[in-house]
Amino acid sequence: MSDATFTSSRGAELFSYLPAYYEFSRVIRADVDAKGAEMDALYAALSETLEQFFVKTATWGLERWEAELGIPTDKNKPIDQRRSYVESKLRGSGKVAGSMIKNVAQAYDGGEVSVLISPGEYRITVTFIGTLGIPSNIEDLKRVLDDIKPAHMAIVYEFRFLLIKDINNMMTFNQLKQTPFSKFAFRSGGA
């Protein structure tokens, strides 16, 4: 008989440890297969629980992360945005420095970010270099950075958009058609 009669991978493994004279016993096979199915379920539950201990893999445990950090849970938001909010809150504790603000902003955006601190002007400039357009979860980022920045400093956000010079002789018509309008810079009014 082959291992094909087992519905459980761990059942087949358990059966391989038994003496050869059980090879044709349907009772022992059924017993070991049932125990193996329970072990499969146990290992799956352990693995899923372990994932909740890490922000990047948390799903149902994300609510606990949010509660611990004082973040209101919004189940209507995509899970990746909720994760990035939690991650940025975790990165944003301690003494405020340009590198901390950069780490927090990059956790949200996932792209390259530049941070310029101008103490004389009481301003922090966050420039999104690696992303075109305005990131979808910019409001969450603004809230987190507002929580961690010094109260006397203002934050200015700069975004990168596609300009005519960026697409002229650089993009094919099909590439241009597939690029969303939110990635382009448009001027309103007269110029």
Can you put this structure into words, describing what you see?
With 191 residues, the protein is α+β, with helices and mostly antiparallel strands. It folds into three domains: 1-53, no CATH class; 55-94, no CATH class; 98-160, GMP Synthetase, Chain A, domain 3 (2-Layer Sandwich), CATH 3.30.300. The protein is built from eight helices and three strands. A three-stranded mixed sheet has the order 1-2-3, covered by helices on one side. Helix 6 (138-148) links the parallel strand 2 (123-132) and strand 3. Helix 1 packs across helix 2 (26-51). It is elongated. The termini are far apart. The model has no long low-confidence stretch (mean pLDDT 83).
Mean pLDDT: 83
And the CATH topology of the largest domain? Answer: GMP Synthetase, Chain A, domain 3
Using the coordinates above, name the CATH class of the largest domain.
Answer: Alpha Beta
Listing every helix as H and every strand as E from the N terminus to the C terminus, the arrangement reads HHHHHEEHEHH
Biggest beta sheet attributes = 3 strands, mixed
| Shape, per Cα inertia axes | elongated
Beta-strand residue fraction: 5-15%
Order of strands in the sheet with the most strands?
1-2-3
The total tally of domains equals: 3
Spans where pLDDT lies below 50 across 5 or more residues: none
How many β-strand runs? 3
Structure classification: alpha+beta
CATH architecture of the largest domain: 2-Layer Sandwich
Output the radius of gyration.
27 Å
Q: Helix share of residues?
A: 40-55%
